[in-house]
Amino acid sequence: MLKNPIVIKKTSGTTTITQLNSTNLTELGSNVDVIYFYADYANTAVVKTAFVLSNGIHVPYRPISISTQNVNAIVPEGDIEEDYVLWEYSIPSAVLANLVTRGSTVTQTAFKASEIVEDTDDLGIYTTASEVDATVNAELKVEYPTAVSGNWANVYQTASNTFVSWLFDGTDFVKQTDILNEQLISTTIPLSIAVNATVSSADEEIDITVTEIVLQELAELWAQVDVLTGVGGAMLTEDYDTEGTATKDVKYARNLGTDGASISYAVQL
Predict the structure, then answer these.
(1) Mean pLDDT value of segment 17-36
(2) How many CB atoms lie within 10 A of CB 8?
(3) What is the pTM (predicted TM-score) of this model?
(4) Which positions ≥6 away from 219 have C-beta within 8 Å?
(5) Distance between CA 36 and CA 74 in Å, rounded?
(6) From the CA atom positions of the chain, what is the Rg in Å?
(7) For 223-261, what is each residue's pLDDT tens digit?
(8) Higher pLDDT, 261 or 45
């Protein structure tokens, strides 16, 4: 699997970020782009990244992790700083495939850092592979059996890469839209990143071709459904859906013969 590292550095004490290398995003779904973010945030900070699509739609902030890579192997020697931490985010192929459209030339990214403020109602951080609310709720009840109404756990869901609070209402843990005890430190200015509109590989071309064929067949099927349901001036459903009051008989329209009426109905269909 291709690794395509993009190294971004935050200027100390500011919200400005700069790309340190000339690597571009590569938009094919099979590619994995890795963004390294080098910043003057404490290693206890919660750092997230977001993207702005070429059509202006925002991809919500997603948490990124402290990198296990050697900083000297990623960040150019002249940009190494004391008290800086290196974060890493491997953009999932599914996210990357929706991040840009084929032929796009640029996208934007930004980062924000926050800290988790201590709170007596905070039960801690829980990690789960489940994306089903009922399952996560059941897991949290087992993990925190003494929880009382007003308590919450901050849950990291690995599959969707989301990190939000789940608030206990006395009966169940209910998923929230953010972290209840998160305090914002700063948000960077967005940075534009060039996008490579790459040439598809042979297997991807096959996938694209098959997809186009399937979509074409679906379009044709929907056109037939539209005719049957009266879309576009064709035979209306109410004309034939009731035995006793139908003004036309669909069985004639489905059976071409010498009868002039059936031919007429078939033309409408």
Answers:
(1) 80
(2) 21
(3) 0.63
(4) none
(5) 8
(6) 28
(7) 665 555 555 545 555 555 555 555 555 554 444 445 555
(8) 45
Asked if residues 210 and 175 have their Cβ atoms less than 8 Å apart, the reply is: no
Among the ranges given (103-117, 119-133, 153-167, 195-209), the one the predictor scored with the smallest mean pLDDT: 195-209
3-state secondary structure the chain: CCEEEEEEEECCCCCCEEECCCCCEECCCCCEEEEEEEECCCCCCEEEEEEECCCCCEEEEEECEECCCCHHHHCCHHHCCCCCEEEEEEECHHHHHHHCCCCCCEEEEEEEEEEECCCCCEEEEEEECCCCHHHHHHHHHHHCCCCCCCCEEEEEECCCCEEEEEEECCCCEEECCCCCCEEEEEECCCEEEEEECCCCCHHHHHHHHHHHHHHHHHHHHHHHHHHHCCHHHCCCHHHCCCCCCCCCCHHHHCCCCCCHHHHHHHHHC
Find the length of the chain.
269
C-beta separation of 75 from 86 below 8 A: yes
Residue 103 CA to residue 92 CA, distance in Å, equals: 20
Q: At which residue do the structure tokens 């979509």 appear?
A: 215
Backbone angles phi, psi at 75, to 5 degrees: -95, 130
Half-sphere exposure of 125 (CA within 13 A, CB side): 13
Residue where the block lists tokens 């590569």: 26
**Alpha-carbon span 39 to 84, nearest angstrom:** 5
Task: Characterize 10-36 residue by residue with b for buried, 16 or more Cβ atoms within 10 angstroms of its Cβ, and e for exposed.
Answer: beeeeeebebbeebbbbbbeebebbbb
Strand 3-10, strand 32-39: pairing: parallel
Structure tokens at 21: 């290398």
